[in-house]
Specification:
The chain is an alpha/beta fold. The protein folds into three domains: 67 residues, OB fold (Dihydrolipoamide Acetyltransferase, E2P) (Beta Barrel), CATH 2.40.50.140; 198 residues, Rossmann fold (3-Layer(aba) Sandwich), CATH 3.40.50; 62 residues, OB fold (Dihydrolipoamide Acetyltransferase, E2P), CATH 2.40.50. Helix content is 24%, strand content 26%. The chain contains eight helices and 16 strands. Helix 6 runs parallel beside helix 7 and helix 7 runs parallel beside helix 8. The protein is globular and about 65 Å long.
């Protein structure tokens, strides 16, 4: 091993890996360093050594990038919630597009040209409507820490505010700090619920209300361009996409294993007088063969919005067998998305037309993506999705 823990070295950063760490090299040995930019010269200290790479913490920036920004959060660099506050926002968008393109090329075997420019969030701070606060007893200081896990260890960084959370959540955080949990090891979820949507306490809903209308617009644009008459909304949660897209198709069905989420989906549809769809509380892989027979594949679009871990192999296998005219895949994890799309497109069963990223998570490594897949005979002209100019 060329290094030991505690060694200090100088590095020139030549890339930023997906996840936010800068990539420096000593000969051919890779060293990952957080909170840096491409082109910077930094001093770093080794904190972990593996066979083919090492990780280091940033000691100081010897030569800074002109795209470096002053972080707005006083906890940045210790708290593990954000990775990119030190980067100008327009640069964050370009960086994320490159990272997604690299992932799709390496994991999915797709051309990076299929990835469009990242659509910016109109509010890069104060946007999160859900955060999870952790509690941990701080023995040296004899107090309870309330905040987020640090990036470099399992300790909790005590925080009084979160710059990427909505103001209402920071008010809730102050209430929690005034009335803390009885002991460490407990988690507290703070959340601002969407207006006019029924959402159970533990059910998923998009965490950025500011960019949510644009996300719906992108998905609707893909759906309209595909020309489908029927929609299968799989992993539908409380029915958000199916309900928002109901008027674009003749009929739809939403599928979700969470019984309480399905009950909420039915209430949400009824409140909007949506009558051309239904919601089914079953596992996707169990009900998909029935739906494949019920909805003609040549006039059907499947919308996938699975958890971060992606789709189960059985779901992908069934979709390849059913061959719907179009599949729209929504994901907050580009790596698992690229993996699943590679499986769907194997042997030309589907063609990947476009991947549209949206920055639903500014200042962090995360990004939302929407992919448009068609069967070969259903390839059509791309919709006009409007400007994706990378500005605030």
């Amino acid at each position: 091993m060329p290094f030991q823990i505690g060694d200090r070295l100088g590095l020139t950063i030549d890339d930023i890996a997906f996840g936010g760490e800068g990539v420096g090299r000593v000969n051919d040995f890779v060293v990952f360093v957080p909170f840096v930019l491409v082109g910077e010269v930094v001093a770093a200290e080794i904190i972990d050594v593996k066979k083919h790479f090492a990780r280091a913490k940033l000691v100081r920036v010897e030569k800074s990038s002109p795209e470096r920004a002053v972080p707005e959060c006083r906890y940045f660099g210790r708290c593990g919630g954000c990775q990119y506050q030190h980067i100008e926002y327009a640069t964050q968008l370009r960086l994320k597009q490159k990272q997604i393109g690299d992932l799709f090329e390496r994991v999915g075997k797709f051309s990076p040209d299929v990835v469009a420019a990242v659509i910016p969030c109109p509010q890069p701070f104060g946007y999160r409507n859900r955060i999870m606060i952790r509690s941990q007893w701080n023995k040296p200081e004899q107090k309870l820490n309330l905040g987020f896990v640090r990036w470099d260890c399992g300790l909790v960084e005590d925080v009084e505010e979160c710059k990427i959370a909505e103001p209402a959540l920071n008010e809730q955080l102050q209430h929690v700090r005034a009335h803390p949990p009885p002991r460490g090891g407990l988690k507290v979820v703070l959340r601002t619920l969407p207006e006019n949507w029924d959402v159970p306490p533990d059910s998923f809903f998009q965490n950025n209300f500011f960019l949510l209308p644009r996300l719906v617009e992108i998905v609707r644009g893909f759906l309209s361009a595909g020309g489908a008459r029927h929609l299968m909304d799989l992993y539908c949660g409380v029915g958000f996409f199916g309900i928002e897209l109901a008027h674009t198709v003749e009929s739809f069905v939403g599928v979700e294993y969470d019984q309480r989420a399905i009950q909420s989906a039915r209430r949400n549809a009824a409140a909007r007088k949506i009558s051309n769809g239904e919601f089914v509380a079953r596992k996707v892989e169990e009900v998909l063969p029935e739906l494949g027979k019920r909805f003609p594949p040549q006039t059907t679009t499947v919308l996938l919005d699975p958890p971060r871990k992606g789709c189960p192999p059985q779901t992908l296998k069934l979709l390849r067998e059913i061959r719907p005219a179009q599949t729209i895949y929504v994901s907050c994890h580009p790596a698992t998305m690229a993996r699943d799309l590679n499986i769907l497109c194997k042997d030309g069963v589907f063609d990947l037309v476009r991947v549209q990223p949206l920055d639903m998570f500014p200042q962090t490594q995360h990004v939302e993506c929407v992919a448009d897949l068609r069967t070969g005979e259903r390839l059509a002209k791309l919709p006009d999705l409007g400007s994706t100019e990378q500005t605030r």
